[in-house]
Amino acid sequence: MNITHASFVTLPVADQDRALRFYADVLGFEVVADLRMPPGRWLQVAPKGAQTVFTLAGPGMGGFEAGSARGIMLVTTDVDADCARLAEAGVAVQGPEEHPWGRMASFADPDGNGLMLLTEASARG
């Protein structure tokens, strides 16, 4: 096998503009692609410099159910600061909690897609 990385992760959303505001304004992601194509809008965002991007798939894009993605782990250098920023933006956050592998919290995007934040134990020294 010669797989090097995942190209994209699909996040099913009901409203791509609302999702874009959340991922860009709250999480600080950049727009990677925003194209009109059949059967709809191809909208991708990602943290700056990331290899894997997130496709914000709206209605009609693959038959996905909005809010059905779970377990998307986002690695951060400071989970506590990021949780504080999310809370300030009105996002409900569970955690952070200490685990053997790192400090972790969870939250959902406006459609209910489940996301997690992790500061890996090795990154904290």
What does this structure look like?
The protein has two helices and eight strands. It has 125 residues and is of the alpha/beta class. Helix content is 17%, strand content 40%. The radius of gyration is 15 Å and the shape is globular. A four-stranded mixed β-sheet has the order 1-4-3-2, covered by helices on one side.
Annotation field: number of helices: 2
Q: Which geometry do the CA atoms define?
A: globular
Largest sheet: 4 strands, mixed
Number of strands: 8
pLDDT averaged over residues: 93
Catalogue the unreliable spans.
none
Secondary-structure map:
Layout: E1 8-12, H1 16-26, E2 30-37, E3 40-46, E4 53-57, E5 72-75, H2 79-88, E6 93-99, E7 102-108, E8 114-120
Give a short summary of the structure.
The chain contains 2 helices and 8 strands; from the N terminus they run βαββββαβββ.
Comma- or semicolon-separated keywords:
2 helices; 125 residues; single chain; 40% strand; alpha/beta; globular
